[in-house]
Amino acid sequence: MGFDPACFDRLRINRSAVERRAATLPARRSVKKDHQAAWLLKAISCIDLTTLAGDDTPGKVRRLCHKAMRPVRADILEGLGVSGLNLTVGAVCVYHNFIETAVDTLAGSGIPVAAVSTGFPAGQIPLELKLAEIEASVKAGAKEIDIVISRAKVLTGDWRGLYEEMRAYREACGDAHVKAILATGELATLTNVARASWVCMQAGADFIKTSTGKESVNATLPFSLVMTRAIRDYHRLTGYKVGYKPAGGISTAKDALAYLVLIREELGRDWLDPHLFRFGASSLLGDIERQLEHHLTGAYSAAHRHPMS
Ligand SMILES: O=C[C@H](O)COP(=O)(O)O
Known about the structure:
Layout: H1 15-28, H2 33-45, E1 47-50, H3 58-69, H4 74-80, E2 91-94, H5 99-106, E3 113-116, H6 127-139, E4 144-148, H7 151-155, H8 159-173, E5 177-181, H9 190-202, E6 207-209, H10 221-238, E7 243-245, H11 253-266, E8 279-281, H12 284-297
Helix pairs in contact: 1-10, 1-11, 2-11, 2-12, 3-5, 6-8, 8-9, 9-10, 10-11
This protein binds glyceraldehyde-3-phosphate.
Glyceraldehyde-3-phosphate binds next to strand 8.
Pfam family, one: DeoC
EC number: 4.1.2.4
Organism: Marinihelvus fidelis
């Protein structure tokens, strides 16, 4: 849609009310036993299995891709009676340099490759380089592009500038899905988080995403509450469903359940699907697999028995 500040310029977010509501979320639904296993399998299907490290290598990315295709050990799936589920993660998320390796390894699996782009994580490079990076990543086979917004545009109230930047990213992505990373931990206020969510949605973001995983504060339930309410209101206004991706620091099955409860409560069942919800996470899958094994055997195995790559 066009840039419409009337949708967000009167927004004010009451931080203590948000924090109070967020604190009740983990206790809002008690998900136990078989239901818990089912929710955890759903969580796996929504993971963007991620490696974004300076020491990434083609071998590490290939191993991660194999984990993405078979995220849970066969004996655990068999024990749970879900061997026929063909469970995979939602996507594999890598730096540009590893797109081709990931695309080759995942060929035939139906799992898309997501690439972080636009000078991830800080985004402090010229716009033309950002657009060139997106175009190169799409050309290399990425079906999803995770862009970072310019935090300075938010912090200086340049909402039109942010809209134009996001529109340019949207166009450069072509048919690839675009996820807008707000870097919420660097936006100073929850009101800014809400406004930035609106601007990115107006400019055509398919998903809004909390964080790069590299800020000092990454995904939290309060940020998620603010962003999912913005998604809900945008859907009411336009009929368009924007996806949500919390990312950074989500590493336990318990965290994953709290986020799924939040999505169920705030956005409803339609959003509990990889088309509209993803976790950006590098280590979450290992803890979920441990939890599923515990569900079967009553014992926790060592984390090293569930390597990511
Ligand atoms: O987008 C994904 C994040 O970079 C992953 O963060 P994490 O390593 O804290 O799970």
